[in-house]
Amino acid sequence: MLRIGNLQIDMPVVQAALSGYSDLAMRRVARLHGARYALNEVVLDRLVLTRGKKQQAITRVAPDDHPVGGQLMGADPLTFARAADALVEAGYDVVDINFGCPVRKVLGRCRGGYLLSQPAIALDIIRRVYDAVAGRRPVTVKMRRGMDDSPESERHFFQILDGAFEIGVDAITVHPRTVRQRYVGPSHWPFLARVKKHVGDRIILGSGDLFTAADCVRMMRETGVDGVTAARGCIGNPWLFNEARALLEGRPLPDPPSVPEQGRTIRQHFEWVAEREGDQRAGAIMRKFGIKYSELHPMGQAVRDAFIRARNTADWLAVLDKWYSPDKPWPPGVRRTGPGHLVAAGACQDVE
Fold it and tell me: Is 10 left (phi over 0), alpha (psi -120 to 50) or beta?
């Protein structure tokens, strides 16, 4: 069990907020395959408060999309607090504060990971968001282990971490790379063990280099964190969640999904995108997902190349029909064993 405030979640592997990816359709697919809690894409606080199509999309929570976290990014404590209140009113189950995004444009606007260098402002944001939500929803924070590897950066990290828990936040997700590292180099898991030991029974979720179900379980066992957030590793691999559940329950790892099974999930994903965006836009949106799904296909490179060449919905559906046909004697599906083509996949982008 994973406890986040008043939420009791029976699977401690969470679908992270993924800019450009974790929309309603992706969250539905993740839930279909065992995720119990998922976060929406990170959104800019002022977009939650500005009338228009973007606001309508952000504040429309589907009845089957619970529990869902709304992740906010911004720089102004007052705007942050107003946006948090709006997310609660819209029906989000958790408000999550992003202090982790390492994108240069975001840092240049004093958002995301930049705030790890400004502990007074970061804690003011947390305090105002917590007061605005006023116990109606859990408040959580996502942060990296600092701006860089300097002692000052580490002091700032622990100042924000301790201050956030003193204010009353319910859980903190820690990605143990620095902001300067972005996604380069290994995620420093021993830092997670230090953090968990430091906070005791307060809830810490780990993040970073979780590309397989085995990675998720290993992080929990090696570091003692209470749960993990799967980010790049679950793009195109929603089977990760039920695989992780099996391992956590002491059961054998399930066989990789067959090609027809993959095809059924990909087609369902397309249909959920088309429901919200229309058939013609769905193909363009699904192109990036098709590229990721291809990694589990026994002829993955050819399938990947075919999805890359797809230019419209008709092309995309033709690739699905050809390479995932249930009428062909496909070899067994393969299991992703590492980052593959996911190195540049967007766990965080500029949200403007």
Answer: alpha
* Residue 251 tokens, joined: 């059961």
Name the nearest CA neighbour of 150 among 113, 179, 119, 184: 179
Confidence (pTM)? 0.93
Angstrom distance (rounded) from CA 148 to CA 127: 25
Q: Name the burial class of residue 317, with classes exposed (0-12), middle (13-18) and buried (19+) by CB atoms within 10 angstroms of its CB.
A: middle
Residue type, 349: Q
The two three-digit tokens of residue 249, written as one number: 């329950």
- H-helix or E-strand spanning residue 245: helix 240-248
Per-position DSSP letters for 150-170, written without gaps between them: SHHHHHHHHHHHHHHHHHT-S
Q: What is the pLDDT of residue 340?
A: 60
Residue 45 corresponds to which amino acid?
D
pLDDT 10s digits, 214-251: 999 999 999 999 999 999 999 999 999 999 999 999 99
For residue 311, count CB atoms less than 10 angstroms from its CB and return exposed for 0-12, middle for 13-18, buried for 19 or more.
Answer: exposed
258: which 2 tokens?
Answer: 């067959």
Per residue in 322-346, pLDDT tens?
Answer: 999 999 999 999 998 877 643 333 4
Dihedral pair phi/psi, residue 132, rounded to 5°: -70, -40
Of 179, 264, 161, 247, whose CA–CA distance to 210 is shortest? 247
CB 53 within 8 A of CB 31: no
Handedness of CA 310, 22, 35, 61 (dihedral sign): negative
Give phi and psi for 172, each to the nearest 5: -135, 130
3-state secondary structure 27-52: HHHHHHCCCCCEECCCEEHHHHHCCC
Q: Is the dihedral of CA 344, 157, 220, 127 positive or negative?
A: negative
For 173, the enclosing helix (H) or strand (E) is strand 171-175
- pLDDT at residue 42, as a whole number: 94
Amino acid, res. 179: V
